[in-house]
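Try this one yourself first.
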């Protein structure tokens, strides 16, 4: 009887070990907003929309982990509204940048959490429903703040971009940390209300206060035409 009980407890023990490893991975990788060179706003008059983490892992409903965290109907609305914002920016001469988060194979996270997106996989691809065109850059971020990938700021610098419009998932995680990283560098940052995914919609107003406290401006999609008609675009070639 004791032997049978011991055998039955083995899977439970292994599950607890797995759960402990997952908790440790996330506990010891607590997010921080990054810092970098401060930009010259006057010399960077161009604008870009940054689409954060609207990739298959988060939006296609094929992950048990994400299905638990993400309401797919609300995620679909975020994609729809992000497309509306992309179209506004593109017509006004702005750039579109896509951010995702993928890992190398055989890292602790990819081993312990098999569903996590790895580089080159379907889950790591930008959602095909987004209005992405040839030439739109993609940047993989190693942490919640997209500026943790230095290539993002290099690209924005080459394109003389000083104003950013942010959309995507999660509003209180990667979008917020990217906004903070951008503010730390002197960018003007707008957060598009309807194009954000909130893990807890009841805390939306509380989160908006956090955005405003770091210096970001929360706007509606309908505000974009009036904001975008102000100012001059240099539109240099970007690569």
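Now uncover the answer:
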């Amino acid at each position: 009887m004791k032997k049978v009980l011991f055998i039955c407890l083995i899977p439970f023990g292994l599950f607890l070990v797995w759960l402990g490893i997952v908790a440790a991975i996330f506990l010891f990788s607590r997010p921080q907003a990054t810092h970098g060179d401060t930009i010259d706003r006057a010399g960077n008059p161009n604008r870009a929309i940054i689409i954060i983490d609207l990739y298959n892992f988060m939006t296609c409903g094929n992950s048990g982990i994400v299905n638990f965290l993400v309401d797919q109907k609300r995620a679909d609305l975020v994609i729809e509204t992000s497309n509306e914002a992309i179209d506004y920016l593109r017509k006004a001469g702005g750039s579109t940048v896509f951010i995702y988060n993928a890992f190398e194979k055989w890292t602790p996270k990819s081993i312990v959490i098999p569903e996590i997106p790895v580089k080159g996989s379907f889950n790591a691809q930008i959602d095909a429903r987004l209005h992405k065109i040839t030439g739109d850059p993609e940047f993989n971020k190693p942490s919640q703040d997209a500026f943790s990938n230095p290539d993002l700021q290099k690209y924005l610098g080459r394109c003389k971009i000083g104003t950013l419009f942010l959309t995507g998932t999660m509003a209180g995680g990667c979008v917020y940390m990217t906004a903070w990283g951008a503010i730390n560098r002197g960018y003007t940052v707008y957060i598009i209300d309807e194009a954000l995914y909130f893990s807890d919609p009841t805390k939306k107003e509380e989160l908006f206060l956090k955005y405003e406290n770091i210096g970001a401006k929360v706007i509606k999609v309908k505000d974009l035409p009036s904001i975008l008609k102000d100012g001059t675009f240099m539109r240099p070639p970007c690569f």
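Discussion: Residues 21-28 have pLDDT under 50 and may be disordered. The chain is about 40% helix and 15% strand.
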